Amino acid sequence: MKHDIKKISKIIDELTTFCLIHGANNINMNVENSKEYFKISFYVDCLDYKDKRVSRLERLLNVPRQTEMEEFYWELTGESDHDSELSIVGMMIDKVEFIHENESLKIILYRYK
Predict the structure, then answer these.
(1) How sure is the predictor about 16, in pLDDT bands with cuts at 50, 70 and 90?
(2) I need a surface site. Which of 1, 25, 43, 95 has the fewest CB within 10 A?
(3) Which of 15, 65, 23 is nearest to 40 (CA)?
(4) CB 92 within 8 A of CB 111
(5) Span 39-83, pLDDT tens digits
(6) What is the top-level taxon of the source organism (predicted)?
C-alpha cells in the first residue's frame, strides 16, 4: 500500500509540473481513494486543447496500463523534464478522461487497485 501512495504522489507531481510549465495559472486537484480505485482529478486553466503539447499529453497518457514496466520505472517520474516521465504515468494508470472547456482542461485519471 505504501508504494501505491507514492505512485499516486508521483503521478500528481508529474502532471502538476506539466501544467505549470505550459502556462497554467490555476490548478485545482482532487484525489479520491475508494475501495476499487484512486481517482485523481485536475481542473486546469489556460491549457488550450488546440495546443499540440496538450494533445501530445493525451497521447502519452492514453496507453494501456503496463504493470511490469511500472514496477521498474515508477520511481523515475518527477525526476526529469522530459516527456518520458509522462509516458511512464500513462503506464501507471488504467483510464484517463480529458474534458475541454474553452482554454480550461479537466483531466481525470483512474488507477484501479
Answers:
(1) very high
(2) 1
(3) 15
(4) yes
(5) 999 999 987 667 787 778 888 899 888 877 766 666 555 554 555
(6) Bacteria
DSSP 8-state assignment for residue 72: H
Contact 96, 108 (CB under 8 A): yes
Residues 6+ apart with CB under 8 A from 72: none
Residue ranges of the alpha helices (H) in 22-51? Answer: none
On whether the pTM is more than 0.85, the answer is no
Distance between CA atoms of residues 100 and 68, nearest Å: 32
| Span between the terminal Cα atoms of the chain, in Å | 10
91 touches 65 (CB < 8 A): yes
Q: Give every CB contact of residue 58 below 8 A, 6+ residues apart in sequence.
A: 96, 98
Q: Distance of CA 86 to CAs 15, 29, 35, 39, 50, Å?
A: 8, 17, 26, 17, 19
Three-state secondary-structure class, residue 47: coil
